[in-house]
Fold this protein.
Amino acid sequence: MRINLVNRMAASSFKVESGIQLIARLTKKLTNIKFYPHLFPSGLKPGEVIELIHNEDMPICLITDIICTALLPTNLGGAESGVLIFNCSGNFNFSKLVTSMRQKIKSYTKTLDEMEVDDLIAKQFNNLFVVDIHDATQFYTTIYNLENVLLEHTNITMVMFDNIAAFYWSEQGFKIMKIDTYLKKVLSKIQNVTKEHKVIVLYSKPHYFNSSKDAMESLEACYELPSLDGVNYRISVSYDRDSIYLANVKSYNMQQEKRFCINEEQVTWI
């Protein structure tokens, strides 16, 4: 009888998971994050990947605004989520983030004085983690150690890379790796680490980093939704006219255009 039981157990298919997988599975994650409705009207699901393509003249305040909204409490229009930033381009500006958060808080409530606003900002910054990356070696070393960070800080919901192509040229030898091949390689390393933790991955890249395939894709008719190659949202930001910027948002089942302008370094959606 015992032998038969052992045989049945051996023949049955059941999943064996590591301790890291178990901890990640038991960590509660929201099934739908109502976050930044201007770009994600249906919300975001844990594990989704967002690509943000921009021209050099795209204001850094758009990325700052996304970070700010992710950090703010839900009653102030935010997601109250932990955010980990890989600052590869050196564009992250802490003082601008403080200014943006202060203005957003004041736009939602008039009952808090300056000291209370500062206390609220300081509290939300407990959920902000910034890693300054200066070279490719540090970049990959930090990615390999990312799992330890996610295990220690289970409140992290979004991992942001600005920009993911920062060290492309420094990694090229005698044989130049194709741009899309390089991007897939880097994304694969990131997703191998983050997939068990169900965090949202958002990365930016300059518009000139597009491959010829991406360039052709951008010329396709707006009625045809492109293949996103594992990316859930592709957002292309460009200068439109009269100090107005255009954000073209594509997903597997949706495409929309949104416009915004910058007033006193604050994003105003039109």
